[in-house]
Amino acid sequence: MKDIYRIIFADPWPFWAGGIVIGLLIPLLYYFHNTALGVSTGYGNFVKILFRPKKLDWINKQFSETISWRVYFIAGIVIGGFISARLSGIPLFSAEMGQFTLLAGLHPALTVIYFLAGGVLLGLGSRIAGGCTSGHSIHGIANLHFSSMAVTALFLVGGIIAANILRIILEGGIG
């Protein structure tokens, strides 16, 4: 029983198993909520919860209810990641971010600021763009939207280029 528990909740799933679960979740979400799966829309809910905007009409129009199912969905992602990390034996707190910590050599406080600012910009950009990369890729491709297929290809190309540029800058060369 302990092995099954660890396989399901602690060990990384194979890519194909995660794909099957996400692939089944999309039609179920349409069936029960008539909406797309996406995390970036929850960003607007959090802005409304945290800042209680009175003059930002676009937030009040788009998010009529302050706490929607997306808030619980995002909370579940965070809590589930925390539980999985704890069951896997990962320390409760760590200033290590893998290769980033080794190569960038930033003070831990600067690393936190760097990733927090990046997360805020990512959330803001995804709301301005009408969805995040995973939403376009998972939801859009599942619904055969040509624009999502095209933008997913561009995300991949852009990511490959950016990763190689960073590798060259941080590691000092190609190869």
Gross morphology is globular
Structural domain count: 2
Class from helix and strand fractions = mainly alpha
What is the rounded Rg? 19 Å
| Total number of beta strands | 0
Number of helices: 9
Low-confidence stretches: none
SSE pattern, N- to C-terminal: HHHHHHHHH
Report the end-to-end length measured between terminal Cα atoms.
46 Å
Q: Calculate the mean pLDDT score and round it.
A: 78
Helical content band:
over 70%
What share of the residues does DSSP label as strand, in percent? under 5%
The biggest beta sheet is recorded as: none
Structure notes:
By secondary structure, this protein is mostly helical. The protein folds into two domains: 1-93, no CATH class; 97-175, no CATH class. It has nine helices and no strands. It has helices at residues 2-9, 15-33, 40-51, 57-62, 69-87, 99-104, 108-128, 133-142, 146-171. α3 packs across α7 and α8 packs antiparallel against α9. It is globular and about 45 Å long. The model has no long low-confidence stretch (mean pLDDT 78).
